[in-house]
Write a sequence for this structure.
């Protein structure tokens, strides 16, 4: 693991969120949970306070520290999927329990965290090496018209079909 990792702020459910995420992604686990000490605003003494976990090998920290900070779409995790089955599986799992679909492969889970569930080769379809700007524009237009991404439709648009 590198020296940089995300740190996420939740009202009071960082541990619940971490447990949810590690149940979805392979190579994921809770590493540690620190209980809140007495006197920390926005917390209850002894409640789960700081959670360190790995998501597919990526270190993540989360804190339950009250409502003064909110997650928003300015930060998102990108899940690069090998095929449509993987997109469907992660999409459904992350929406479970009250998440909401957004657009263009984005969703917000029930904890307020934003995710982009995309094909691993989306960058090639949208940007590539500049070999065919019209193909990239068609793929981009197709992506912008979708909520959950459909790989077959993106590839067909890229090919001009």
């Amino acid at each position: 693991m590198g020296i940089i990792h995300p740190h996420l702020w939740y009202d009071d459910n960082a541990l619940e969120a971490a447990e949810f995420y590690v149940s979805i992604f392979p190579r994921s686990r809770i590493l540690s949970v620190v209980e809140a000490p007495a006197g920390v605003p926005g917390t209850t003494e002894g409640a789960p306070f700081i959670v360190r976990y790995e998501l597919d090998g990526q270190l993540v920290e989360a804190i339950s520290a009250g409502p003064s900070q909110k997650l928003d779409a300015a930060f998102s995790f990108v899940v690069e999927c090998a095929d449509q089955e993987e997109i469907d599986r992660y999409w459904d799992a992350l929406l479970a329990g009250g998440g909401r679909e957004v657009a263009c492969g984005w969703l917000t889970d029930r904890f307020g965290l934003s995710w982009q569930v995309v094909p691993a080769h989306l960058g090639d379809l949208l940007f590539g090496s500049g070999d065919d700007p019209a193909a990239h524009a068609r793929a981009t237009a197709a992506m912008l018209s979708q909520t959950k991404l459909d790989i077959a439709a993106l590839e067909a648009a890229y090919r001009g079909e």
